[in-house]
Amino acid sequence: MRNTSTILIVDDAPEGRVLLERLLTAEGYDLAFAGDGIEALAKAAALTPDLILMDVMMPHMNGFEVCQRLRADPVLAKVPVILITALDDRVSRLHGLELGADDFVTKPFDQTELLTRVRAITQINRYRQLLLERAKFEWVVENTDDGYLIVNKSDDVLYANPQARLYLGLPPDQGELIAETFLTLAGKQYQRRPEEAWLVWPEPPLKRASRYLMRPESAAAHAFWLQVDVFPAEPERSWVVRLRDVTQEVTVQRDMRGFHEMVRHKLRTPMLGMQGSLEILTRHAVKLTPEEVAEISGRALRSVQRLQGQIDDIVQYLTMPSLVQPDVSFNLALLPPVVAQISAELGLPQVKVVEQHDLEEARIALSQQALELVLREILENAKKFHPRQTPTVEISVTCLLSNEACLKISDDGLALSPEQLAQVWTPYYQGEKDFTGESPGMGLGLPMVASLIWEAGGKASLYNRDDGPGVRVELTVPLVWPEEAEDKC
């Protein structure tokens, strides 16, 4: 068995170095050598050995002086030193101990005795280093911005650092056992997303899916996201759980994508209208009648006015604190025209909305901008992953007894593999393989849809249709009824 300790041998006599090399090599130690005190200080600074075996009587700088300089170095001060000396008087030994030597071996030394002392000191030094590293680790864990817990197979919390206690609403550690399981504690404030990734808790999720705890948007606070990572501490016995605040990452990435989508879709159409009208006027103005000039100019003016309106929408989007707000909702009666506009922009003529009549006065807990973003992403995917980019899409809206609206968006395109279904709602997951093998991967679009729905307190699921080809996206969103219509559900 190899010993991992490093020993620096310092002796000006070659025969002394050879003797110690033969003795210690058989024990498996890593050895380094120095022929004088100056070289010893340089080697010690480079290696930080676990032990220094040093002859006292050396030219230029004896072992006592080297030991004194080692103890004055903040890095090397704790390195154990055994002095090997022919001096057997009490005064020399006391002088060496005063200068920081840990032990003495008198020449000629007993090899068994020397090996015993070396083993004892290296083991003590290793233990001291382990305690030091443990103290450093505990300090980092206690002061980190991430929450760390240790849970066992039954989900009992064996340890929680201060940040984890803060995230879970626990009092500061006072040596008391935590009576509730991790999932019970988390369930008091957070929703588990995506739900499928939590089915095997506390074991790591299948297919590298990410786990999140999400506290929905409320009147008092914005949505809050924790990414939950699990690392095995003891196989099948306990796990280290890390809670990392990713709220800013989720919000920034989602809102940036929303902004890009809004700019791309809302500015293109009026710009094309302006460009076309101005090109006609530039090329054919002398041939046009005053009436035709007025008509084309009016068309250009309307495009400019529409562009101004779109820019106003974008400014409003940028100044909004969030796409999901507790005091903002969308009237479901406006769903058909919104879908029609998005479908026309995407070139999708076969999109139909089916809604219940008793939902005409209902509102869902999403802003119009958020709902447009959700619908656009889902319809774009329906087109992108249809074999001919001409999907037939049906959007149905139903009222649930749980005072929620359920939107189902069904297409007749390609079905997804089990791996894609498992990963599709995971924020920032990039599919390893595209749906068709040729189209771009899923990217951030569907995860953005999930984050919007989850923050509104809803649920999102996607599954292959059992009544034909394609997939069905199911979004469940809380309803916000007018006071006079609260009994509709």
SSE layout and pairing:
Blueprint: E1 6-10, H1 14-25, E2 30-34, H2 37-47, E3 51-55, H3 63-72, E4 81-85, H4 90-98, E5 103-106, H5 111-143, E6 147-152, E7 157-160, H6 162-168, H7 182-187, E8 191-193, E9 211-215, E10 224-234, E11 238-245, H8 247-284, H9 290-319, E12 330-331, H10 335-346, E13 351-355, E14 363-364, H11 368-384, E15 393-400, E16 404-410, H12 418-423, H13 445-455, E17 459-464, E18 471-480
Parallel strand pairs: 1-2, 1-3, 3-4, 4-5, 13-15
Antiparallel strand pairs: 6-7, 6-11, 8-9, 9-10, 10-11, 12-14, 14-18, 15-16, 16-18, 17-18
Helix pairs in contact: 2-3, 8-9, 8-13, 10-11, 11-13
List keywords for this structure.
single chain; 489 residues; alpha/beta; Rossmann fold; Beta-Lactamase; Helix Hairpins; 4 domains; seven-stranded mixed sheet; six-stranded antiparallel sheet; 18 strands; 41% helix
Number of helices: 13
What is the fourth-level CATH superfamily of the largest domain?
A: Histidine kinase-like ATPase, C-terminal domain
Query: How can the largest sheet be summarized?
Result: 7 strands, mixed
What is the CATH domain class of the largest domain? Alpha Beta
Q: What's the architecture of the largest domain, going by CATH?
A: 2-Layer Sandwich
The fraction of residues in strands falls at 15-25%
**Estimated structural class:** alpha/beta
Radius of gyration: 36 Å
Total domain modules: 4
- Poorly predicted runs of 5 or more residues: 427-444
**On the 0-100 scale, what is the average pLDDT?**
81
Q: What fold name goes in the CATH topology slot of the largest domain? A: Heat Shock Protein 90
Give the overall silhouette: elongated
Number of DSSP strand runs: 18
From the N-terminal CA to the C-terminal CA, the straight-line distance is: 73 Å
Q: Fraction of residues in helices?
A: 40-55%
